[in-house]
Write a structure and sequence with these properties.
The complex is a heterodimer. By secondary structure, chain A is α+β, with helices and mostly antiparallel strands. Chain A folds into two domains: about 190 residues, Multidrug efflux transporter AcrB transmembrane domain (Multidrug efflux transporter AcrB transmembrane fold); about 80 residues, 2-Layer Sandwich (Alpha-Beta Plaits), CATH 3.30.70. Chain A has eleven helices and six strands. Chain B is built from 15 helices and 19 strands. Chain B folds into two domains: about 210 residues, Multidrug efflux transporter AcrB transmembrane fold; about 220 residues, Gyrase A, domain 2 (2-Layer Sandwich). The chains are: A alpha+beta, B alpha+beta. Strand 5 of chain A pairs antiparallel with strand 18 of chain B.
């Protein structure tokens, strides 16, 4: 039985030699990241109205949406000739995106579109989003701030709890994951709105989660085993956490998959990004993060010496304090 | 062994708390704190408005000018060339003997920066401090005014809150149709600046030959008729009275034409000013100006003392209603503009709820079944923790009166996926120790101990990211960050403490039974 076999993989306690193959994996990752960057700089992100400003109108027709008619009517109007009409989820729904917005409260673009599209058939206005250019700029700024701040905080926390090379390796793994996720977003021309930013930050949290659990095991391996060759400790730690990594990734993957399949068109961009993120995040925490650690030249013996030193200093301090206190008494 | 250990007791208390406080949200009962649905789920209108505060400074200058004019007229102090230029006003005092009197009066108005060039030529502007005060007041007054207007519009639960220095967030969950939405927006935007102004009878004949600049030099303004853009009136720049003196306004119908009109009542001070003015200007015309358009310009036949007046024009009943509401609720001290708008139809909201519920339930079932198949009874224990986790998220959100948005729903779905992680880590550790031949008791104790640092480090970093998301996010993103944060904190309680407590309670049975496959899925 296949299921039985899958269960077996996790039970054997076998150690796989991941680190012996780290260069091919790093090579594959580099290719993916470079490809993503090329996509980012050539095709570019498809900024949605949240960041670029503009108007989005979603209409639901009672029959099949007359996309061509809508395009014709919009094309004749100077104000709306830059409008983009796309089907949205079903045959009867369309989304119209216009790069401009109005500041008047009275009659706005949404109202005008509703009026000029009257001849195209019976429809209900399901959604009108309008974001002014100022708000879009502010959001863009805030988004970049949030991302960079998150990375800095992680860097500090991981350095504090582990060691600086661990922090750098985990950040590199994160940059790897986010770049590839962004590449996928560009490749599939997904509109980048606030929800995509949330998805990216979630990937960041998720992938970090995975990486830290592997690193925690490596730290434990360093502290408890007699092994002084890093690649061996890494191999046994990654192997030991393999069942957990795969299980959690699978459950999360399936949850996100149901979100993607049944969550409706509105959150499909969000769930798609997460789907990519879960796959890439899992891959990177097994194959990439620890490889970076090895490549950064982390040395077990100096780490142990360092830890021993810390311990010695602490003991010395305690001893001095004890002496001091005794002296006081 | 130890059925009621402290971990289990805490977990049970938390479970009871969570269930009790989440009932109002699940059943959507009328009383009790519950999670309200965000506008993206129930449909409605969300707007971010910007108040154009520099206009409020201009308005303030205008009212100072009106005060000076009223005072000098009343005290028979001769002044000339009273002029307003955006953020400053100037005039010349003709009678130097009155300087003391005038300066005392000006001294009573706070925040003025007065400069006199050759002693009697006055130039007045607001001090920087006063400008900031005026701007700040304009925003809080705009919030108040918009709230009043929406309350009188008869919508359920409008929410108007200030955001930052000059922005206002308006949320209207009750809006159902685009027509309704448009009316609400128009009502909010209506400046409702009522001004009673004197017609410049001396130069009135030249109105069609004057430019705006020339009129300005005479201290006049050219205004168009509300019905016909081509009819112009030349009015004195400084109004006799403004809408701030209106205490009531009602829609009525003209007895002759049966057209809707608006009757307004002035405050007692306004009535006095109005009475004084009409007494002195019999046979001259008075312009009723609303938002820069002349609605009527009747000839004054006698002193009007009652302090009431009317606005007539080609109103529809709806329009007249909007004007009356706007006048009653006070004028907007500065115009507001739309910065961001999100409106969601109720049907789309319902679809979104349905879709995310399907995703939530199917994702949840998948995880639950998977855990039981893989971990057997340990899986059931993890599932109990997971269910409690969802109850806690709902209960805590309800207690804080949080709103559930679509990204918030996604956050809960995601938490379901990630909350089992802690139990996967722990169970894997326990299995590892069991395979090494440790006793069940030892395996559980050490399993939790070994797993702890990984779980803590992983959760703390995710929590840090969620906090940053909350700090830098707006509306929907904040909702997502909140559910994730609550979910993480709750999972510490349920997945770590709760399951540990359950294992402790079951320990006696487990050690007697010794069937590791049944308990932990270990063959």
């Amino acid at each position: 039985m296949v299921w039985g076999k899958i269960m077996e993989i996790f039970k054997t306690g076998k150690t796989y030699s991941f680190m012996a193959k780290r260069l091919p994996f790093l090579g594959l990752s580099s290719i993916l990241v470079i490809a993503s960057f090329i996509l980012l700089f050539t095709k570019g992100l498809n900024l949605g109205i949240d960041f670029s400003g503009g108007t989005l109108v979603q209409l639901q027709y009672t029959q099949i949406a007359p996309v061509q008619d809508i395009r014709d009517i919009l094309a004749k109007n100077v104000k709306f000739d830059k409008g983009v009409v796309t089907k949205f989820g079903s045959e009867s729904e369309v989304v119209i995106k216009i790069p401009t917005s109005t500041t008047t409260l009275g009659k706005d673009i949404g109202d005008e579109i509703r009026e000029i599209l009257k001849p195209t058939g019976e429809f209900t206005v399901r959604r009108v989003d309008m974001v002014g250019p100022k708000v879009g700029d502010a959001l863009q700024e805030k988004g970049i701030m949030a991302l960079s701040l998150a990375l800095i905080v992680i860097l500090i926390y991981v350095s504090f709890r582990f060691e600086w090379r661990f922090a750098v390796a985990s950040i590199l793994a994160l940059v790897h994951d986010i770049s590839i996720a962004l590449g996928a977003i560009v490749l599939f021309s997904i509109d980048v709105n606030l929800d995509i930013l949330a998805a990216i930050l979630t990937i960041l949290g998720y992938s970090l989660n995975d990486t830290i659990i592997v690193f925690d095991r490596i730290r434990e391996g360093i502290n408890t085993s007699k092994e002084s060759e890093l690649t061996k400790v890494v191999d046994s730690s990654v192997s030991a956490t393999l069942s957990r990594t795969t299980l959690t990734s699978l459950t999360t993957f399936f949850v996100v998959l149901t979100l993607y399949l049944f969550g409706g068109e509105i959150i499909s961009g969000f769930s798609f990004t997460l789907l990519v993120g879960v796959i890439v995040g899992t891959y990177s925490s097994i194959f990439v993060a620890a490889s970076f650690l090895v490549q950064l030249g982390f040395s077990i013996s100096s780490y142990r010496a360092n830890e021993a030193n810390k311990e010695k200093r602490k003991k010395e301090k305690d001893r001095l304090r004890a002496q001091f206190e005794q002296g006081m008494v | 062994m130890n059925i009621f250990n402290y971990r289990l007791v805490i977990f049970l208390l938390a479970t009871i708390f969570a269930v009790v406080f989440s009932i109002p949200s699940f059943l959507q009962t009328d009383d009790g704190k519950k999670i309200s649905l965000g506008l993206d789920l129930q449909g409605g209108l969300h707007m971010l408005l910007g108040v154009q505060t520099p206009k409020a400074v201009e308005g303030k200058i205008k009212s100072v000018a009106a005060t000076i004019k009223y005072f000098s007229d009343n005290e028979e102090i001769l002044i000339d060339e009273l002029n307003i230029k955006a953020e400053s006003l100037s005039f010349i005092l003709l009678d130097s003997d009155e300087e003391m009197k005038l300066d005392t009066m000006l001294g009573e108005i706070k925040g003025l920066d007065i400069s006199k060039s050759d002693r009697l030529s006055y130039n007045i502007r607001l001090t920087e401090v006063e400008k900031e005060i005026v701007k700040d007041l304009a925003v809080s007054q705009a919030v108040e005014t918009i709230r009043n207007r929406l309350d009188q519009f008869g919508l359920a639960e409008p929410s108007v809150t200030r955001q930052g220095k000059s922005d206002i967030v308006v949320q209207l969950p009750g809006i159902k149709t685009p027509q309704e939405e448009q009316r609400a927006r128009e009502l909010i935007a209506k400046p409702a600046n009522l001004e009673l102004m004197a017609i410049d009878e001396q130069r009135s004949d030249q109105v069609y030959n004057l430019t705006d600049e020339e009129a300005n030099e005479y201290g006049d303004r050219i205004l168009a008729d509300s019905n016909d853009q081509n009819i112009k009136y030349l009015v004195k720049q400084i109004p006799i009275l403004t809408g701030s003196q209106v205490v009531d306004a009602k829609v009525a119908f003209d007895q002759q034409t049966n057209q809707p009109i608006i009757n307004f009542t002035l405050s007692s001070f306004g009535a006095q000013v109005f009475g004084d003015f009409t007494a002195k200007n019999i046979d001259k015309r008075l312009a009723v100006v609303l938002d820069g358009k002349v609605f009527s310009a009747p000839v004054i036949r006698e002193r009007i003392g009652g302090g009431s007046g009317q606005i007539s024009g080609n109103f529809t009943v709806n329009e007249a209603g909007n004007v009356a509401i706007a006048l009653r609720s006070g004028a907007l001290p500065a115009p507001v503009i739309m910065l961001e708008k999100r409106s969601v139809g109720p049907s789309l909201g319902a679809d979104s709820i349905k879709a995310s519920m399907v995703a939530l339930i199917s994702g949840f079932l998948l995880v639950v079944v998977f855990m039981v198949v893989y971990y057997r009874i340990a899986g059931i224990v993890a599932n109990i923790a997971l269910i409690t986790n969802i109850f806690i998220i709902v209960a805590v959100m309800a207690m804080f009166g949080a709103t559930l948005t679509l990204p918030g729903m996604a956050g809960i779905v995601l938490t379901v996926g990630m909350a089992v992680d802690a139990n996967v880590i722990i169970s894997e550790r326990i299995r590892e120790l069991l395979r090494q031949g440790k006793s069940i008791h030892k395996a559980i104790e050490d399993g939790y101990k070994n797993a702890m640092s990984a779980i803590l480090d992983a959760n703390i970093t995710t929590l840090l990211v969620a906090v940053i998301l909350y700090a830098y996010g707006t509306g929907p993103i904040k909702g997502f960050a909140i559910t994730i944060s609550i979910g993480i904190l709750a999972s510490m309680l349920t997945a770590i403490l709760g399951t540990h407590g359950i294992y402790e309670a079951l320990l006696g049975r487990m050690t007697k039974d010794k069937n590791l496959n049944k308990w932990f899925g270990v063959k």
